[in-house]
Amino acid sequence: MRPLSIAKQVTDRGGESLKRYLLEVSRIPMITEDEEVKLAIKIRSGDIEALEKLVTANLRFVISVAKQYQGRGLKLHDLINEGNLGMVKAATKFDETRGFKFISYAVWWVRQGILQAITENSRMVRLPLNKINVINRINEACSQFEQIHQRMPNSEEISELIDVGVEEIKICLKHAFWPISIDGSKNDMQGENALVNRLSAGLLESPETSLIENSLKKDVNDFLGILSIRESYIIRMYFGIGEESPLTMDEIAYNLELTKERVRQIKTTALSRLKKNANNNFLKDYLG
Question: Of residues 116 and 221, which shows the higher confidence score?
Answer without folding.
Answer: 116
